TrEMBL record, chains A, B:
Pfam families: Bac_luciferase
Lineage per the UniProt record: Bacteria, Bacillati, Actinomycetota, Actinomycetes, Micromonosporales
NCBIfam families in UniProt: FMN_nitrolo
Assigned keywords, A-Z: Flavoprotein, FMN, Monooxygenase, Oxidoreductase
Protein name: FMN-dependent oxidoreductase (Nitrilotriacetate monooxygenase family)
Species of the source: Actinoplanes xinjiangensis
Record-linked PANTHER family: ALKANESULFONATE MONOOXYGENASE-RELATED, C2H2 FINGER DOMAIN TRANSCRIPTION FACTOR (EUROFUNG)-RELATED
GO molecular function, one term: oxidoreductase activity, acting on paired donors, with incorporation or reduction of molecular oxygen
Length: 455, 455
């Protein structure tokens, strides 16, 4: 099968690497999770590789792993604003919760990041699983999965109204007459919904790219329907090409059914590339990282993910036969299924499963040479399993440097990846259209692509 | 009267200046309110002058003035993060509302800004007056003044618990044993109060300065009591030395009665300095700005401030005899009284009052030479009316440049202002102590001034 065109690459940044034991390597700075210079360095490396974007995960909670790994998480819109100043081209995608924010505040913060970065912002929309997070926000119980997604849909609807509450050409800046803006081109949302009432317009104009790119990462039934309706890029986790193809086809179909162009949703599975000059060198790196895992911590996390008590798991036994099914999980439903299937399919002991999960928490770990990593990426792309990849370097910065300096040039030589940025905004990097303003789209377009802010 | 020591100076940044007509001057960029480079330039000018801090006001609402003046307001924690990267020393104070945020999110965002900036963050705590803001957050009515302040007090209590939820020496980073942090030194707030329940610890450690400096700007009875209990710096507005002295004495007394050291609350009245090489030049600048005001807009704003319908005001008449008193105002109570008293004391017509308010919305406008501005500042300082000033340049950047290049050197020559930064954090600039962690303060101090993050 051949498929023309170029793929998209996102750098998923996390502390000193996605592998939970990466901080224990001699090369790693264990304070880097709180060091903005570390992240600026990573952003510059990713931009050197002409990557589409970088991405930060997030949750408003301190996970129970302070003993185990670096646990400081700077708030992503703050951190990405700092990275905007250290870069010129790369997109900046922050995770934020629809369950624990107010639409006016969050839409405004993303609009501000979008303007400060010159149209490079993206929002990874999450509903935030976990009772611990709920308990930080006046709740004694986690809202149900379905309710969280209903709330998310209304939250995004309100955000879109807010981002379109200024037409592109509000600002007239007529010093002579003393008229700064044309307030007939301000459209207050006047939204009164089930979860939210938001009357007034945003106090930030439309950005160079119209509004931030909407990103989503849930793969449950609710998550897929939500993505089909709203998402412009999707992060997802698959262990096999066949699973990825099934997901890809399913989500493109749902997007079409939702009345959208399937090409306007970019599907990016995660990959943890462990790169060596030889296969043996890569395997030794992988083994070195596995040896540094403390299994007693990892076991507790695995137990939580699949919904059992840690005492029910034994390190040198396979997973128990009877496990709660996806329906009983209120958290990351699809991730639970992926992990259980991985353990069962390969008949792994709990210890082996922990080793496999240590690098990517369920994402595909691929260990090999740069050519093999490039081959795998291209293979998934040409075989309809991905529009690109979410690169989760096991160790940072070295793993991202290896990817950018060794894998990217191969993809560029093959014509599969850009050699220079041709676009200006995140939307342009991903080949996504600048959305028309929903308040004026019915009539004649009244503004150019350039928008009011670029003059 | 003589008073030794040095005063403190904050640069209050706003678009292209505090004078509402400043954007109409030939020198002004009317798009600058949305241009991060404009603000970086202002921050560098303020830092060149060795100012303690810069400050951004805020409200989650589009004010009804798009026609009148630049109305885009980038979210302050985002904008200040961008400015943190453009500066090294100056403090960064953002306004945020306790009425329309969640403590976990806001405390975390300020902690993140504090870490990204190396301990330079401050939070101007506001309760956000105005029905328009309430209607952006699911409400049909503004919560009462008293309720907003009760909520604010609990909000700050929770924030302090969150900022102290990591001891300074949590991070041990022991690669050998694989222990990153000492989770016995994590103190979850477990807060269950009237307005908020927040169970878990923050996912951001304590900063170099312990926690952001707490700033407050309300001068009502509720506002003064709140400031006495929490504030470390206070922005205030006075038209006369006598009023400022009364406020200064009152707030220092209340702070003492609240069990705090009165020297640990710095009182900074606002001043709009209109600076010329001669008095005549300064007066001409002032007149030029007044001529550019559109009175029909300003009249509507004045009416709102004092609680009457615009039709009750005539441009060439004094204020009406019967006006709602402070008790009937749910918004900026003390500002209403200040404006009414100014109009009555000087028997101003509405047009004249609008001219006087155009520059500083009730703050003191001082028109003169650099020496006269320095004299006025020093006079208020030595006569117990201020610990320093909140500098509200009428036009930006030129008004801040004039202050920094002409007034600051005079204050430095007189020994009234620093010539170099000697501290590293905002707290150190203001001579405020680094707070002990409330969870460990009863015992022996377990950490040095340097904290865990500085290594």
């Amino acid at each position: 099968m051949t498929r023309p065109g170029r793929l998209h690459l996102n750098a998923f940044l996390m502390s000193v690497g996605h592998h939970e034991a990466s901080w224990r390597l001699p090369e790693s700075d264990p304070y880097a999770d709180l060091d903005v210079e570390h992240f600026k360095n990573l952003a510059r490396i990713a931009e050197r590789g002409r990557l589409d974007s970088l991405f930060l995960a997030d949750g408003p909670v301190l996970w129970d792993q302070v003993g185990r790994r670096p646990s400081g998480v700077l708030e992503p819109t703050v951190l990405l604003t700092a990275l905007a100043g250290a870069t010129r081209h790369i997109g900046l995608i922050a995770t934020a919760s629809t369950t624990y924010n107010e639409p006016y505040n969050l839409a405004r913060r993303f609009a501000s990041l979008d303007i400060v970065s010159g149209g490079r912002a993206g929002w990874n929309i999450v509903t935030t699983a976990g009772l611990d997070a709920a308990r930080n926000f006046n709740l004694d119980a986690l809202p149900a999965h379905r309710e969280r997604y209903e709330r998310a849909a209304e939250f995004v609807d309100v955000s879109l109204k807010l981002w379109d509450s200024w037409d592109d050409d509000v600002i007239v800046a007529d010093k002579e007459t003393g008229v700064w803006g044309d307030d007939t081109r301000i459209y207050p949302p006047a939204h009164r919904g089930h979860y939210y009432s938001v009357a007034g317009a945003l106090n930030v104009p439309r950005s160079a790219q119209g509004h931030p790119v909407l990103v989503q990462a849930g793969s449950s039934e609710n998550g897929r329907n939500f993505a089909a309706r709203y998402a412009e890029a999707v992060f997802t986790a698959h262990q096999t090409l066949a699973d990825a193809q099934e997901f890809y086809d399913d989500l493109k179909r749902r997007t079409l059914e939702a009345g959208r162009d399937p090409d306007h949703i970019k599907i990016l599975p995660g990959i943890v590339p462990i790169i060596g000059r030889t296969v043996a060198e890569a395997r030794e790196r992988e083994a070195e990282l596995e040896r540094l895992i403390r299994p007693e911590y990892a076991l507790a996390q695995l137990a939580g993910l699949i919904g059992v008590d840690p005492s029910e798991l034994s390190l040198d036994e396979p997973l128990p036969a009877n496990l709660p099914d996806e329906e009983q999980i209120e958290g990351a439903k699809s991730r639970r299924t992926l992990v259980v299937n991985l353990g069962r399919r390969e008949n792994l002991t709990v210890r082996e499963l922990i080793g496999r999960l240590g690098g990517g928490r369920g994402h595909l770990t691929f260990t090999g040479t740069a050519v093999q990593v490039a081959d795998e990426i291209e293979h998934w792309y040409t075989h309809g399993a991905a529009d690109g990849f979410n690169i989760m370097a096991p160790v940072l910065p070295s793993g991202l440097e290896a990817f950018v300096d060794q894998v990217v040039p191969i993809l560029q030589e093959r014509g599969r990846f850009r050699t220079e940025y041709t676009g200006r905004t995140l939307r342009e990097h991903y080949g996504l259209p600048r959305p028309a303003n929903r308040n004026t789209a019915a009539g004649t377009p009244v503004h150019s692509e350039e928008g009011a802010l670029t003059r």
